[in-house]
């Protein structure tokens, strides 16, 4: 395995199907550009005369669009920024925290990362979109699914406050799981 000598940037991107690692190699003498997603090479370009520009590729099961922007700052110094779906990584993650809930839990010695996409009510667990059954209950809705042999339920209840909106709670084996901060 060739050593990544021109590694200039590494990003961790939390998507519904998991946290993805994006690595970027930029050979400023050779003009080489290599992009790795989760350790797999997705773009390789050798001998590029133009040292600035962008590389676009997809990440994860939902084929999320990612772009690395290469900008010259001064002389032979470069700045590398990552955009996800056309937004800076910071903006994307801020927006994502409003549109998703994430829980991390351990069941029977196995770690699980459960993500609820609030706009679609899709539930993801460790990279897989889950089969769910939704039902209306007295105080809101419940979305049921199973992880291994564990019954899981995401309860959606109005907070009663307009600013807060709906509160989503994950319940596994009659136990409330605290939300994770990513």
TrEMBL record:
The cross-references to Gene3D superfamilies, in alphabetical order and at most eight, read: 2.40.128.180
Where does it primarily localize?
Answer: cytoplasm
Localization per record: Cytoplasm
One BP annotation, GO? negative regulation of extrinsic apoptotic signaling pathway via death domain receptors
Ribosomal protein: present as a keyword of the record? no
Report the function annotation for this chain: Plays a role as an inducible effector molecule that mediates Fas resistance produced by surface Ig engagement in B cells.
* Entry protein name: Fas apoptotic inhibitory molecule 1
Species, as recorded: Mesitornis unicolor
The record lists the lineage as: Eukaryota, Metazoa, Chordata, Craniata, Vertebrata
């Amino acid at each position: 395995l060739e050593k990544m000598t021109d590694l200039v940037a590494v990003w961790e991107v939390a998507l519904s199907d998991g946290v993805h690692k994006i690595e970027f190699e930029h050979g400023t003498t050779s003009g080489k550009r290599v992009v790795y997603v989760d350790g797999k090479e997705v773009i390789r370009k050798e001998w590029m005369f133009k040292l600035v520009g962008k590389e676009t590729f997809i990440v994860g099961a939902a084929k999320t669009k990612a772009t690395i922007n290469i900008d010259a700052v001064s002389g032979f110094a470069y700045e590398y920024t990552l955009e996800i779906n056309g937004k800076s990584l910071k903006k994307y993650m801020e927006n994502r925290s409003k549109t998703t809930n994430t829980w991390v839990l351990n069941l029977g010695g196995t770690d699980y990362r459960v993500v609820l996409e609030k706009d679609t009510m899709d539930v993801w667990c460790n990279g897989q979109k889950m089969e769910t059954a939704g039902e209306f209950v007295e105080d809101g809705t419940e979305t049921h699914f199973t992880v291994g042999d564990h019954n899981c339920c995401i309860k959606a209840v109005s907070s009663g406050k307009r600013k807060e909106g709906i509160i989503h709670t994950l319940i596994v084996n009659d136990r409330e799981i605290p939300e994770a901060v990513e």
